[in-house]
Design brief:
The protein is α/β, with parallel strands linked by helices. The chain contains 7 helices and 7 strands; from the N terminus they run βαβαβαβαβαβααβ. It has a 7-stranded parallel sheet, with helices on both faces. The N and C termini lie far apart (36 Å). The model has no long low-confidence stretch (mean pLDDT 97). It binds nicotinamide-adenine-dinucleotide. Nicotinamide-adenine-dinucleotide binds next to helix 1.
Length: 243
């Protein structure tokens, strides 16, 4: 029996990278899936997974679009047990080089998107006696990191929202935890210069980037009943960077 047998999970930003890996791991464990992304590409993944997955184009910063995702999940599967708020954007810049537009760009996806997602699933999760929300933050929200001001600020907000939500939603049996990846080998890190990446890798105690699967296994643990007494926790998946 799979760890997510009978469960329905929504994974945002799952057309590629970590979200796509989480979709595969969750499907292997028996979950039925609603995969969403603002970009195309998730259709092929949903097709590969088969009848237990659908893909929807979805901007996480759009409240109406969230309603569409919830309606589609309920119509197709009749319940929602897990939400992985995985969608994120990353454009590295120092405070000096960050304007209001760049801050707002990160805010809308990384912070507002997570807020809207958590709000949207409260009612359907409460209706089935609880659920699990996993918010993907970053190692850049466990300490200070130079040159990534807006990204770091919005990922710190995710860390804070996770703790507040864990307390507010405990009465419904909804657990809320955050995952803090370090450098993970996905298309997102292409935004860094080669020089910055070499310097970064040299500072990782385990000496290498992480893989999407290494993050996905932690997300799977938090999504499943293996973590039934874990809420408000933050788990770094960062090869020891920043400890
Ligand atoms: N890769 C890393 O090193 C790293 C480190 C720390 C945290 N993270 C976080 O992990 C999560 C997954 O990132 P990844 O590494 O797989 O990167 P990625 O760029 O491969 O994937 C991010 C996905 O989010 C989607 N997305 C962007 N804006 C969206 C929107 N408005 N609505 C819906 N989807 C949207 C993108 O289309 C993309 O498919 C992100 O939250 C990211 O911030 C990544």
């Amino acid at each position: 029996m799979g760890q997510l047998e009978g469960k329905v999970a929504i994974i945002t930003g799952s057309a590629q990278g970590q979200g796509a890996m989480e979709a595969r791991l969750f499907a292997e464990q028996g979950a039925r899936l609603v995969l969403t992304d603002i970009a195309p590409g998730g259709e092929a993944l949903a097709e590969e997974i088969g009848a237990q997955a659908i893909f929807l184009r979805h901007d996480v910063a759009d409240a109406m679009a969230w309603q569409h995702v919830i309606d589609a999940a309920m119509e197709r599967y009749g319940r929602i047990d897990v939400l992985v708020n995985n969608a994120g954007v990353y454009k590295p810049a120092s405070l000096q080089d960050t304007g209001a537009a760049l801050l707002d760009y990160h805010y809308r996806v990384n912070q507002l998107g997570v807020f809207l997602g958590m709000k949207a699933v409260i009612e359907p999760m409460a209706a089935v006696g609880g659920g699990s929300i996993v918010n993907i933050s970053s190692q850049a929200a466990l300490g200070g990191v130079p040159g990534v001001f807006a990204y770091s600020a919005t990922k710190w907000a995710v860390r804070g929202m996770t703790k507040s939500a864990a307390l507010d939603l405990a009465r419904y049996g909804i657990r809320v935890n955050s995952v803090h990846p370090g450098g993970i080998d996905t298309p997102m890190i292409a935004a860094n210069s080669a020089e910055a990446m070499e310097g970064f890798k040299a500072m990782i105690p385990l000496g290498r980037l992480g893989t999407p699967e290494e993050v996905g296994r932690v997300v799977l643990f938090l999504a499943s009943s293996a973590s039934s007494y874990v809420t408000g926790a933050e788990i770094a998946v960062a090869g020891g960077f920043g400890i």
